[in-house]
Amino acid sequence: MQRRRPAxxxxxxxxxxxxxxxxxxxRIRVQLLLTSLLVLANLIGSxxxxxxxxxxVPGPSVFTFALWPITFLAVPLxxxxxxxxxxxxxxxxxxxALHWAQTDRAPSPxxxxxxxxxxxxxxxxxxxxxxxAFALFTLLYGIAEPxxxxxxxxxxxxxxxxxCANSYLFSEFxxxxxxxxxxxxxxxxxxxxxxxxxxxxTWAVGSGVPVAGLMIIAIWALAEGTVTTVxxxxxxxxIGAVALATGLLLTLLxxxxxxxxxxxxxxxxxxxAAGDLSADVTVFDGTxxxxxxxxxxxxxxxxxERERLRDLFGRHVGRDVARAALDHSGLGGEVxxxxxxxxxxxxxxxxxxxxxxxxxxxxxxRLFAVVVDEVDRYGGFVNKFEGDAALAIFxxxxxxxxxxxxxxxxxxxxxxxxxxxxxxxxxxxxVAAGSALAGNVGAxxxxxxxxxxxxxxxxxxLCEFAKTLPGRTVASGRAVAGAAxxxxxxxxxxxxxxxxxxxxxxxxxxxxxxx
Length: 515
Known about the structure:
It is a single chain. This protein is rod-shaped. Strand 2 (about 380-385) and strand 3 (about 390-395) form a beta hairpin. The longest helix has about 45 residues, at about 230-275. The two termini are about 65 Å apart. It has 15 helices and eight strands. Strands 1, 2, 3, 4, 5, 6, 7 and 8 form an eight-stranded mixed β-sheet that branches. The chain is an alpha+beta fold.
């Protein structure tokens, strides 16, 4: 037994919640997740700086007694204030700018641009905080110990670069519910930060900044001239380890943000391939991948519209005719052996004059419902409704083994049901068979599928003649002769009659149970 794989969440991750949830619940989820991830990004950057300053980058120590006020008072105080002001209050202010998300209304174009730019704004805020730390502590340590300037400047810049990259990717992830709500109103056109930007960020922090650090250490070693192997190896190994760790983390984040939209599209595509045209994708990515998601939704809308038109077309002309039209859409046709049923409401003029139009339409709909039901059941199709009459064809456009027997059986079934289900009126039924031209008739701009030939005229005249008979159902002897014995035995042939407008006589046949 094949194990069923869990469904892909609409937003690409279960911790982001369902695609639709209450505005208050969504706001709390985003606030908590965004704050937690930004705190985590800053803690990672701070840990990198502490390790590099304390144990890796060569230079004077920052833990001397003279530097105690800076290291143990100024640094922790700035970190706490930065976390409070820059993260907690910053995220609250940012989400306050997304006030429209607390309602179910669609954002304006300006609000949409602001929503997609929020990750950049939060990243810029983190960058400003770390630049402030760079300026402040480079100045403070530089005044106390000038030789610490390169060491402090390099480590803070490296930590800030890691924090900014992580902040951007974390913010994009946490704000997916807001982005999804914003992108419901419009398709992302020009992405502010595309997949290329994500890849460049990964390269810059995972490779560019660490390599630059190694180059700085190499320059320092050349300038010193007396650097030992250990002094050179330790920082290189440490920075290499930082590069490996941060590079792996950023690569996983970029891969997740890139793969998540693709997975949602793939799952929806599999549903469409399985016949589920209701499949849809929640657009939550503001890059080219969001355009891919929106493009799939447009494609799915087109498929649903095409299926709706096909269904409507099939209801108008019959599903078999609709399928034939898709294969052969030109004018013309071919001679086929067919059987034809003509059903006509008796006394329709009087009915229309004495009943309200709504009741007349209701009566016709119930009449035609019986006709369509029985004709479909016996393999024919209703070619057209002509006011209060219906024309059904057996043997075209699809061939059936016993078109005459099927038409006769359908005529009997229609007559039996009408006597029970439509007691307030009566209908006459005529059945004929023979060769006719079946195909598309009209002009290239507008045509319809129909059957033209003597069987159609004969069925119409038989239907008119049936109005004078007790059972109001009559068939031609040729139709009975062409039917299989099981159905032919249910009909009794009688006299020949020359029907109105015809030159040759027609032998009449009525169902056996009709007197």
